[in-house]
């Protein structure tokens, strides 16, 4: 057996033994140990690594799905805000737009009060129902 492979297997066995709480002497690898026990230990190591890999892949897939959903929601919100912004631009007077641009350049917050003489249209028209509401 190649010395490097022997040392790697001995390290793997020592590492697993320490994890399992067994003594190094009970799982000792030397020239007298059978090839079957070495293969069995190698198989257990591979199974453990495959299990860790599958758990990590599952967790990553779940996180990707969550992030895709968040991106989708943010794209929808961005589209809605762009539409609202365009609507506000079309409804604003040139004076209001100039005032807003000036506020953006100076960094001051926009005024919350409306200038004299301007009226804001109602958000929703009143519903016209023919029957009583409960």
Automatic annotation (TrEMBL):
Which cell locations does it reside in?
Cytoplasm; Nucleus
Q: Which organism is it from?
A: Mustela putorius furo (European domestic ferret)
The record's keywords, sorted A to Z, are: Coiled coil, Cytoplasm, Nucleus, Transcription, Transcription regulation
Q: Name one Pfam family in it.
A: TSC22
Is Cytoplasm there in the keyword field?
yes
Supply one GO CC term from the record: nucleus
Keyword Nuclease recorded: no
Q: Where is the composition biased (Low complexity)?
A: 105-134
Name by which UniProt lists this protein: TSC22 domain family protein 1
From the UniProt entry, list the residue stretches annotated as the region Disordered.
98-134
| Coiled-coil parts of chain | 57-91
**Chief localization:** cytoplasm
Q: InterPro entries from the xrefs?
A: TSC22/Bun (IPR000580), TSC22/BUN_CS (IPR047862)
Query: Which family, according to the similarity comment?
Result: Belongs to the TSC-22/Dip/Bun family.
